[in-house]
Design brief:
The complex is a heterodimer.
Chain A lengths: L2 H11 L9 H12 L4 H11 L3 H8 L13 E6 L2 H5 L2 H12 L12 E6 L11 E3 L2 E3 L7 H7 L3
Parallel strand pairs in A: 1-2
Antiparallel strand pairs in A: 1-3, 3-4
Chain B lengths: L19 H6 L5 H8 L2 H11 L11 H6 L10 E6 L8 H8 L1 H14 L4 E6 L4 H16 L7 E6 L9 H8 L23 E5 H13 L1 H4 L3 E2 L2 E2 L1 E8 L5 E6 L4 H8 L9 E5 L19 H6 L8 E6 L4 H15 L5 H19 L4 H12 L9 H15 L1 H10 L27 H4 L1
Parallel strand pairs in B: 1-2, 1-4, 2-3, 7-10
Antiparallel strand pairs in B: 5-6, 7-8, 9-10
Classes of the chains: A alpha+beta, B alpha/beta.
Chain lengths: ~150, ~450
């Protein structure tokens, strides 16, 4: 038994027998292990959950946090919904695009950083909110971008 | 013993209430919880009904009444599900509750579970709230070690990024490990919810308010706020104000007081243009409407909603067509695709709004936009489709001249100077360049 398989069984124990409730957690673990949800990752998850890979794929495609393609080592996700947008989020997007040399939705050529615009992150009072490797940075201004990008190396 | 705490965020000024010892020092897991556990399920539900605690998630349904609808005679287990999928643009209050008073939420879970004779609680937290998940999960562990859970199992379940999972039946589907697509109702969750068993679903702020009711007593609790909406609420204020943030105030506080006294008024010396009072999904208000008291019925009386108690304040630099377009792109992106009017209608609305902004639309297109909205309202399984329509319909009605100026003038009258000019939406990111495999090795 792989460590992955055992961990998924532990998660499953928390939910009623036969339920698929562990699927999101299992897919998240598989994504952490494989870097993204490759065919192999789906098959491994399906095995551990005792469901079909097709079921896992259908679930994964519904949720924004699952990556179906390889992504960078780091992620920078900028909220561009209304509250952040009203407070200058577009300028922050443009500053990141310039600093990284890619457009939002793309990954730097060296595979270090994936840049994305995302929907509301729930930090509307602290615009602009930027999630760097899933940790929120509040009140980000274009002048903060260089420091954030530099800290990610690459 | 100190006076009982009477507000949701009470005690956080001088205590780190993420620590169980400090939470207990301010009366947490104390007399209120003991009182609740000494009551029968019926007595506790009565007490909650007396408090008239209205759901803070959006619909405003009284929490005690919801508990009374649970099919307690069912042979199946009863479940309590806490909706911590806060995703409404403008809302960031549940996040603060989980990050600063996680034990108040846990204590609320224990009391509410006792009311519906449940020993199984699931807290569904949106996947993006990683730090808050860690804090909450650690707090649950602390409470378990301190043997405070009393046989109740609390599981913090992480979502994976989908606005629709804040809708209660979509949340249940997601919690069951499936795509988060809403279910037809009936059956309603109190009869057949999670795993087809009786299920109570409440927002984070609703459940975290429950311990206050037991500490104070329902009668005392009901003295704050207004009779139809007692208590305090945390209001999230964002957008073009001097001091955006969360403010906990009695229900019924005038909107003007919140915006001008607490949030410091409009930033950068600009003029107020509109307020979207309940998160981005509700009809907007014009500046002459902001003396409205912030409670469910008063906001309902002027044609909008209390919603998620989240005010997005918009100043005069914003183009209303761009506001409508960015809002609609969000709902289009988040539509689960199950109901055709929502799946197709939101996309159609985006296309019309894009042509209005570009100056290629006609006045007939504005009527068409209204018509598409009319054909979503009431024709979908859940509220998401309606959330796309309500705000846009209000912008169209109240700022019609601005929409017409786009049409008649052949483009945006803000000439590139709107605060939302060029704002990118995730649905615009067509470019996607997967990294070459070798770059990852």
């Amino acid at each position: 038994m792989s460590a992955f398989h055992e961990e998924v069984q532990k998660i499953r124990e928390r939910y009623p027998e036969g339920s698929r409730s562990a699927s999101l957690q299992a897919l998240r673990l598989a994504q952490e292990k494989h870097g993204y949800l490759s065919r192999e990752a789906f098959e491994e998850t399906a095995d551990a959950l005792e469901v079909t890979p097709a079921f896992c794929y259908s679930v994964a495609t519904f949720y924004d946090m699952f990556n179906l393609d390889p992504i960078g080592t780091h992620t920078i996700e900028i909220c561009t919904n209304l509250p952040c947008g009203l407070c200058g989020a577009q300028k922050v997007v443009e500053a990141f695009e310039e600093a990284l040399g890619v457009k939002a939705g793309e990954t730097t050529e060296d595979g270090n950083v994936t840049l994305r615009a995302v929907e509301c992150l729930g930090g509307c009072g602290y615009a602009t909110v930027v999630a760097v490797d899933h940790r929120y940075r509040h009140n980000v201004k274009p002048e903060d971008v260089a420091e954030i990008v530099e800290a990610l190396g690459g | 013993m100190a006076e009982p705490i009477t507000t949701l965020l009470g005690g956080t000024e001088d205590h780190d209430l993420t620590k169980i010892a400090e939470y207990r020092a301010v009366g947490g897991y104390g007399a209120g919880l003991e009182r609740a556990r000494a009551m029968s399920s019926d007595e506790l539900i009565d007490e909650l009904q007396k408090a008239t605690l209205r759901g803070r998630g959006g619909a405003g349904f009284p929490m005690g009444r919801k508990a009374s609808l649970i099919d307690r005679k069912s042979a199946k287990p009863k479940y309590l599900v806490v909706n911590a999928d806060e995703s409404e643009p403008g809302a960031f209050k549940d996040r603060q509750v989980m990050a600063t008073v996680p034990h108040r939420l846990i204590e609320g879970c224990l009391i509410a579970a006792h009311a519906i004779e449940s020993s199984d609680v699931f807290i569904y937290i949106r996947g993006e709230y990683l730090t808050e998940y860690e804090i909450l999960a650690a707090a649950v562990e602390e409470a378990r070690k301190a043997k405070l859970l009393g046989g109740v199992e609390i599981t913090v379940h992480r979502g994976a990024g989908a606005y629709i999972c804040g809708e209660e039946t979509a949340l249940l589907e997601s919690l069951e490990g499936k795509r988060g697509q809403p279910r037809p109702r009936p059956p309603f969750p109190p009869i057949q919810g999670l795993y087809m068993a009786p299920t109570q679903i409440n927002n984070v702020c609703t459940i975290a308010t429950v311990p206050l009711i037991l500490d104070m007593g329902a009668e005392e609790f009901a003295k704050t706020g207004v009779p139809s909406s007692p208590g305090t609420a945390i209001f999230s204020v964002s957008g073009n104000v001097v001091r955006p943030g969360n403010y906990e105030l009695p229900l019924g506080t005038p909107m003007r007081t919140l915006i001008y006294d607490y949030a410091g008024g409009i930033a950068d010396g600009r003029e107020l243009k509109c307020v979207i009072p309940g998160g981005s999904s509700v009809p907007a208000l014009t500046p002459d409407q902001i003396d409205v008291p912030l409670d469910y019925d008063s906001l309902g009386a002027i044609g909008t909603f209390f919603g998620a108690a989240s005010l997005i304040v918009v100043d005069d630099r914003c183009c209303m067509v761009q506001l409508a377009l960015r809002s609609t792109k969000f709902y289009m992106h988040e539509s689960c695709g199950k109901c055709t009017p929502c799946r197709v209608g939101t996309r159609w609305m985006v296309q019309i709004l894009e042509s209005v902004e570009a100056g290629t639309a006609t006045r007939a297109d504005l009527d068409l936009l209204e018509n598409v909205g009319d054909n979503i309202l009431g024709k979908v399984l859940c509220a998401l489709g309606e959330f796309a329509v309500y705000p846009v319909d209000s912008y169209l009605r109240k700022w019609r001249a601005e929409f017409e100026a786009h049409v008649d003038g052949g483009g945006c009258p803000f000439h590139g100077e709107s605060s939302l000019e060029g704002i990118l939406a995730p649905s615009d990111m067509h470019a996607h360049t997967p990294v070459a495999q070798e770059a990852l090795v």
